[in-house]
Write a sequence for this structure.
């Protein structure tokens, strides 16, 4: 088991990279603590698999170092790094039985047969594979093969880390939820560092204590699901996490705050000072649909928006509003009256975020 440190890491698949756009991983320093349950979350093509393969040793980074407990492992194979990796599609030996497939990583380590039997049975039980142990892997369904593949990744409890690369893609939806719970249980039992790659925010937050959100080859935020929700450090996190995502509106600086159309949003002096000291090309405010306050009726200090659409989702409603020409989504709890025609809203200061060139501006962080 190990702390995994990525030090000034960058990777380009091109031998002669020109600018930053030629990098699948842009320079980053990041630490995965020993024993953590982590998710690496981001859209297709953002560099998740590249990063995972660099950690496991399938890929050698073009720049920077990979350190396990402070020791450089750049030149070590996955076996030498003692890493187990589970891929999107099953990797099983078709001619072997399920038992022998699960036993393979243990036998490879010279584990004695009595213990092999115990461990294989243990993992078969966790993954509901007991009935299949004697079957040839070639006779399994795609779901079953992937469970065997996961079992091979999970069977050793002495690995440095287990890496999962979208392992539930080929798994039936009703099984997915169950397997995610199992993974979490296994993590709690053995306390092995696990990094779970997914493009699904629900999958990430049910598995992980902390989520690294990746975008364009960078980790733009590393935090708990709550931190990602309440304080997105990058507009992409605001947009990608939440359903619907954060409202993001282009604004211009004004005296005492920022504005768009005929809307003026006052900002605290500390924020104005930070803004004045920052260079930027684009400026946006962000507020989550959950945090927009909807008044029960006309209210002098509120902003008046047009209601363009109401979507009833049972326990809550999503309103689509037009505020000074900007589209805005608002989540309304079921016990609240639904505004008709016009809605009086305000943005509580605590939840109004300001983004310069897509990164959150925080007072005191100039
Ligand atoms: P993800 O797993 O998040 O979908 P990848 O790590 O697979 O993303 O890909 C990141 C970027 O690197 C993409 O632009 C992809 O096209 C590129 N890429 C991935 N693998 C290779 C490769 N073997 N050769 C060249 N480019 C690659
Ligand atoms: Mg991938």
């Amino acid at each position: 088991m190990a702390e995994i440190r990525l030090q000034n890491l960058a990777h380009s698949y091109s031998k002669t990279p020109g600018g930053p756009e030629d990098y699948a991983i842009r320079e980053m320093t990041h630490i995965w603590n020993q024993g953590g349950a982590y998710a690496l979350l981001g859209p297709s093509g953002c560099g998740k698999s590249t990063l995972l393969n660099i950690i496991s040793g399938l890929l050698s980074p073009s720049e920077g170092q990979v350190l396990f407990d402070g020791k450089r492992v750049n030149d070590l194979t996955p076996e030498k790094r003692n890493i187990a990796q589970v891929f999107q599609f099953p990797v099983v030996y078709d001619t072997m039985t399920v038992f022998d497939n699960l036993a393979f990583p243990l036998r490879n380590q010279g584990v004695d047969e009595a213990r092999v039997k115990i461990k294989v049975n243990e993992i078969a039980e966790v993954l509901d594979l007991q009935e299949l142990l004697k079957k040839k892997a070639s006779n399994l369904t795609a779901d079953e093969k992937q469970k065997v593949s996961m079992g091979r990744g999970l069977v050793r409890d002495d690995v440095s880390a287990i890496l999962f690369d979208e392992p539930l893609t080929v798994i039936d939806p009703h099984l997915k939820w169950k397997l995610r719970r199992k993974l979490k249980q296994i993590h709690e039992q053995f306390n092995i560092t696990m990094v779970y790659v997914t493009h699904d925010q629900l999958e990430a937050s049910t598995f992980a204590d902390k989520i690294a959100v990746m975008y364009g080859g960078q980790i733009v935020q590393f935090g708990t699901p709550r931190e990602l929700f309440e304080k997105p450090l990058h507009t992409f996190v605001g947009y990608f996490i939440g359903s619907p995502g954060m409202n993001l509106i282009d604004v211009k600086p004004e005296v005492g705050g920022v504005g768009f159309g005929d809307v003026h949003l006052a900002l605290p002096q500390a924020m104005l000072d930070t803004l004045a000291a920052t260079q930027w090309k684009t400026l946006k405010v962000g507020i989550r649909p959950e945090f927009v306050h909807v008044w029960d009726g006309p209210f002098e200090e509120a902003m008046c928006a047009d209601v363009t659409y109401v979507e009833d989702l049972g326990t809550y409603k999503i309103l689509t509003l037009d505020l000074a020409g900007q589209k805005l989504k608002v989540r309304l709890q079921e016990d609240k009256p639904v505004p008709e025609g016009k809605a009086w809203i305000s943005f509580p200061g605590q939840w109004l975020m300001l983004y310069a060139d897509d990164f959150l501006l925080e007072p005191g962080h100039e």
Notes: The two ends are 38 Å apart (CA to CA). The CA atoms of residues 168 and 175 lie 9 Å apart. The chain has a mean pLDDT of 94. Residues 48-49, 165 surround magnesium ion (ligand 2) (CB under 6 Å).
